[in-house]
């Protein structure tokens, strides 16, 4: 069984939601130190370091004992046998490098698998198949090709004079929902009566402009969400029983039903807040993943978001003095996350699908385009729920539900701080071409800069990676 402190950590993460786990990550370090006498609390890596410090060889590490059938909220039981199809895909060195450079958070806590020279043996938590073994290939052997629906740039047909994004199928995922759901999502911001911005609305507008621009360059572009309505058919009341279970597991046995009049932690431990979180953060993303993986089957997903700093009371928000940009790929899994069976399965599926090898150069190219178009400085994580990946100061690896569940390369974008005063006023203006007078200065559309940065990065990446002529 896993330790009580780790179980409490997982419950805390479920209560808070993935975007708010920075405090949970810090607390987890203390839990590990207190539960394992041979552990040392890992020091946080310097923000400028391109990657976490190398961990000891994973071949020599013990394995984390896994509780049976521990799943994340609304997840289904993984079919572990599917991992056996990856036999012969990676060498031992490639597997270790992927874990070390992208998928590990640098923690000394042992992973739930054992690695030998010829295979990776994974603790499943499923009593019907307690261990699944994935065969590794020798360095002199040719990699096995595994069926998948997406194509890397190098696998596309030659351009032969056609537009640079010809043949590329790009799914655009406008973050959040917006519309009448924006306040429930806590993605509604207003500094003056009669005006407001909503992240879901801004993301959809950006996606619509981006779709047209990509199609002009030859791409097949489709929207995962086409209006400010949920993709999921479920609604918060559908999750009442699940919310009660999550709260009970976290030690809240008699939760308050409504958060009316409550703030902070008191709001988080209500049934209403939990059902809403399960609706828009979990059910909605899982519905989008099903649509992407089973219907759309793109070569790439672009998740469009707008960032924000803490603005305090939503009725009296505060401006932020900082404005920044970062781009994410999937990675940086913590030990509490890997305890969950579905998360462990999905991470290993991504590792053996070699998705990081495609995501990282794509993210670096898009980040470079975004940095040039927006002029924004890079955001610097000071918590362990994300880590630098590659060489760009703008690119991080982080385990988010969307970039884990989509079974293809995903580039997740977080430009701008919505409650930065200048950015807030630029976003109020929506999308336009050229420049307009704002606060005494001629300024461009923030959305236009967002789109232009993505397009420039994608064109540069695909032109450099694919054949031009047969």
Question: Brief description of this entry?
Answer:
With 470 residues, the chain is of the alpha/beta class. Helix content is 36%, strand content 13%. Strands 7-4-8-12-9-11-10 form a 7-stranded mixed beta sheet, with helices on both faces.
How many H/I helical runs?
Answer: 13
Rg for CA atoms: 22 Å
User: Overall mean pLDDT score?
Assistant: 88
Give the biggest sheet.
Answer: 7 strands, mixed
Low-confidence stretches: 1-10, 18-64
Structural class designation: alpha/beta
Q: What percentage of the residues does DSSP assign to strands (E)?
A: 5-15%
Question: What separation lies between the terminal Cα atoms?
Answer: 57 Å
The helix fraction, in percent, is: 25-40%
Largest beta sheet: strand ordering: 7-4-8-12-9-11-10
Q: Would you report the number of β strands?
A: 14
Shape: globular
Element-by-element helix/strand order? HHHEEEEEEHEHHHEEHHHEEHEHEEH
Oligomer state of the chains in this structure: single chain
Q: What this model shows, in words?
A:
- 36% of the residues lie in helices and 13% in strands.
- The protein has 470 residues and is an alpha/beta fold.
- The chain has a domain at 153-323 and 416-465.
- The protein has a 7-stranded mixed sheet with strand order 7-4-8-12-9-11-10, sandwiched between helices. A 3-stranded antiparallel sheet has the order 1-2-3, with no helix packed on it. Strands 5-6 form a two-stranded antiparallel ribbon.
Topology, please?
Blueprint (H helix, E strand, L loop, with lengths): L3 H13 L5 H14 L56 H12 L9 E3 L3 E5 L7 E5 L33 E6 L13 E5 L2 E4 H18 L3 E4 L16 H10 L14 H5 L2 H26 L3 E5 L20 E5 L5 H5 L1 H12 L2 H20 L12 E2 L6 E3 L3 H5 L4 E6 L5 H8 L6 E4 L2 E4 L1 H20 L5
